[in-house]
Amino acid sequence: MILNGSNIIGFSDSRQSGESFYAVNPKTGQQLNTAHVQATISEVNTAAELAESAFQSYRKLSGMKKAKFLETIAEEIENLGDSLIEICMQETALPEARLKGERGRTVGQLRLFAQLLQEGSWVDARIDFANPNRQPVPRPDTRQMQIALGPVGVFGASNFPLAFSVAGGDTASALAAGCTVVVKGHPAHPGTSELVGRAINQAVKKCNLPEGVFSLVQGPSIAVGQAIVRHSLIKAIGFTGSYRGGKALFDEANKRDEPIPVYAEMGSTNPVFILPEKLKQETPAIAQGLKNSIQLGVGQFCTNPGLTIVDGSETAKEFEQLLSKEVEDLVSATMLTSGIQSAYESGLQKFKDKTTVSSLSQGKKGDDETQGVPELLAVKGKDFLADSELEKEVFGPSTLLVQTEDDKELLQIAKNLEGHLTATVYGTENDLKANEELLAVLERKVGRLLINGYPTGVEVCHSMVHGGPFPATSDSRMTSVGTAAITRFTRPICYQNYPEFLLPEELKTDNPLKISRIINGERQ
Amino acid sequence: MILNGSNIIGFSDSRQSGESFYAVNPKTGQQLNTAHVQATISEVNTAAELAESAFQSYRKLSGMKKAKFLETIAEEIENLGDSLIEICMQETALPEARLKGERGRTVGQLRLFAQLLQEGSWVDARIDFANPNRQPVPRPDTRQMQIALGPVGVFGASNFPLAFSVAGGDTASALAAGCTVVVKGHPAHPGTSELVGRAINQAVKKCNLPEGVFSLVQGPSIAVGQAIVRHSLIKAIGFTGSYRGGKALFDEANKRDEPIPVYAEMGSTNPVFILPEKLKQETPAIAQGLKNSIQLGVGQFCTNPGLTIVDGSETAKEFEQLLSKEVEDLVSATMLTSGIQSAYESGLQKFKDKTTVSSLSQGKKGDDETQGVPELLAVKGKDFLADSELEKEVFGPSTLLVQTEDDKELLQIAKNLEGHLTATVYGTENDLKANEELLAVLERKVGRLLINGYPTGVEVCHSMVHGGPFPATSDSRMTSVGTAAITRFTRPICYQNYPEFLLPEELKTDNPLKISRIINGERQ
Asked: Of A403, A475, B347, B512, which alpha carbon lies 20 to 30 A from B257's?
């Protein structure tokens, strides 16, 4: 498949503005060849209208047909072959193995949602049968299930050019829910976005679905993004990116005549608490594991452990030295964009400018300007508590080591935390039993709590929660990873006194889909 | 139990402001005897702090213990005996039979949530077991369930002084979820609120729960309501009332440093579409049923059918005459407050001032000033389409009959509708088959769709949806009636690699609670 730089509006290549932008190879700083066309607000309008028109039939598609569609998207992405990986490497500087892994994750999550649809119980079907003899009034027949919200706007993320971008988790779960999708591709990888967008539309055509199930608008324009959120036909938003970006979309959506839900994943510092007995038993292993987690994907994971909290013991000092050495031995690598690299550098500098923060060690810097140099910073617990800025995310391969004086200070740090995606506790059974309050406090701060593991690596499965209290996300009631993500794009409806011939398959009395349902309050 | 007019802040009677307000008997216009004390912002702060403190243990309470608590509240409300009904009659002018029924509904929904907790599967437990042999990386153990959001603010509704007030659906579902509650009682029925509030605190004490699980602040102050929504320890809001009130709370909540969910049920006109064959077959029965539904509770139900859409046939004219006659024969009754009565009157007048709207008939007006006189208005379909004001709720015992020219106009009316709680279609099998597009359109506009029934009378059960797209509610993804309402006050959490001894009972491997769970993607 050859790139032509167009926006994809329904089945049409669209080049309304004539204004071009180019992807940049972060390794070389050179522009890539394809002239991509900046989308216009009028193209957003057309995409939204097509999405609404397609939604009217797409939302009624059977689970089996939607599953086939998701599987076809997965196949079409695989059919792009090495050209997708090559362009994505040029645009993101992410290594081949990582991108092949991420492609596997992307098609894997499409197929997982396909399985969910084939199984079918996700609609949470509930039936309460009529009881004409009930006193004082007869009970009517009522039946409930989840239905799709409407056309959804999805914003591609920079750090997962495949798995959280054009055909990523937001798109997969929205399409699975029965919603049509207008994607705004991330401007750092427009070629990757275009290839995947074309693959999706191939699948739309192969499955004989209507034009408008999917559209892709491209370019760095903020106005185009706003136009998606403001469009009256768009009924929900999926976003992964910065706090500033996510909060702006959230505010925009709430200013609409009809406010709509915004699922914005806005970053997190993912605190790791290391308790004393465990630290003593496994000092080198924890230092090494933490170093690996910090450096994974050049620190450009939402779940990167940006805060590490230890006590002030001798072991903790030893750990600090080992971790310093580990970080020193790290070789820096190219970040996704020069903007991300400079934000990383200035974020670190802002911390280092504080008299309370010291830099313990740095990794080796290479020649390439866009490389992020791993760094280990340290601060005393009391200084951390006095300065809420230090909890903010510095997106990149660093962690801030917080050295606490005692258990009380450690607990106080947990209590003061804002919302995060994850928190991790390292501890032996003794440690954990002595710190039950710490765990109880952390449970209220995050979407995922880990014991003796690293937060990077988010499993795509039924029980995952990639979410958490504000400001980690704009809606703690939802997850953006895993099968439960589908409910972000649905709402319940109740059919009262409906004749059988009008009921959806999921709610017919004889249960033709053989799904698990709640009948008169009992799971069947 | 004797009223003393205090606010109930945790276990204390609180009378900080010294400013009194009085309930008014709407039948007589006379103030009732009890001097109720207007709550202060400082009392809200104390209530929120107590709610937060109590939440730390209350949220961890087992389902069985929470169930016992809800059942004890139900018993304590029943123990209030006739004194509750008497005070409530004085404050609301609702008849004894209705209030006894509503009390039954109130204790019934507390007991239904108790059953839900005893059964236990509502937490949506999901387990994906570890797979250390998976390639390229091992699969960790992850387990998900719903946990409580935090202290909740509940605003009592005027029109359900028991079932959607101090111990109503919002409070019951929040307490069931594991949240503590600060209620702002509706100022029209402070005595009812105080009695029920004391009953709840009796139950808190009997069940040895901590102070702060429940507090009640009273009075008409808007600032006090805002203080609840703005308080950083309050994590969600339940509200039933006007669009203006609900939208103001929604906006306030989104302006917070940490935005919180607001579940505001803000009114609805509940359109009823009557299709020709059915109308022809059952003209008098439909007219009579509709009249009853309009008049139920003096039209002060959220699901009151304020819009009735018919075609322009001879049968429809006959129906119009029959319905006019039915409404003429209705006897007016006292509304909840003089404010509601005058808003009803001015709302009708605003419609009648339009040259496009005619008044077909009125019920008989009694002597009492606060009575709402039933009224039937009519408008042509094309005039209705041209004037979006006519879709707005006029809270009270009236309906606007929309006379359409043809199927196309009827469908256009459906397409133009905003979000409503319900829509109803009257039709024979032939009618319904000929109007599938109408049903498909309405499905996107409402939370509940009825065939051949009346929207008033909202069943409290597992499959009910009392909700719907904006502006009917501020969050279409939820219901405020029925057991699914519990999820308004919860969010998912994932425990990764947790040792058995730390896992909640719901997620332990051997399933001690014997609840239905999703294990490795399969319902068990």
From this structure: A403
Cα gap A357→A351, rounded to integer Å: 6
Residue B6's contacts (CB-CB under 8 Å, 6 or more residues apart) are B13, B14, B15, B37, B194
pTM comes to 0.97
Using the beta-carbon criterion (under 8 Å), do B449 and A495 form an inter-chain contact? yes
Q: Give A263's contacts in chain B (Cβ within 8 Å).
A: none
By Cβ distance, the residue of B128, B440, B493 closest to A447 is B493
Count the neighbouring beta carbons within 10 Å of the beta carbon of residue A388: 10
Q: Which residue shows structure tokens 């903020």?
A: A222
* The pLDDT of residue B314 is above 70: yes
Q: What is the pLDDT of residue A368?
A: 86
Q: Extract the tokens encoding A367.
A: 């020649």
**Which residues, including other chains, have CB under 8 Å from residue B134's CB and lie 6 or more apart?**
none
* Rounded alpha-carbon distances, angstroms, from residue B124 to A146, B489, B507: 15, 14, 10
Minimum CA–CA partner of B521 in chain A:
A462
Interchain contact, A465 vs B115, CB within 8 Å: no
What share of chain A in percent tops pLDDT 90?
97
Taking CA atoms, B181 is separated from A321, A395, B13, B232, B235, in Å, by 49, 38, 17, 14, 10
Q: How far is residue A167's CA from residue A161's CA, in Å, rounded to a whole number?
A: 9
What is the ipTM score, two decimals? 0.97
Residue to substitute from B255, B463, B488, B503, interface A, most A β-carbons within 10 A: B463
Rounded to whole angstroms, what are the CA distances from B169 to A511, B157, B460?
A: 31, 11, 9
Q: CB B463 to CB A144 under 8 A?
A: yes
Taking only the tens place, the pLDDT of each residue in A384-401 is: 999 999 999 999 999 999
Report residue B24 as tokens: 């008014």
- Residue A369, pLDDT > 90, answer no
Encoding tokens for residue B280? 């022809």
pLDDT of residue A367: 83
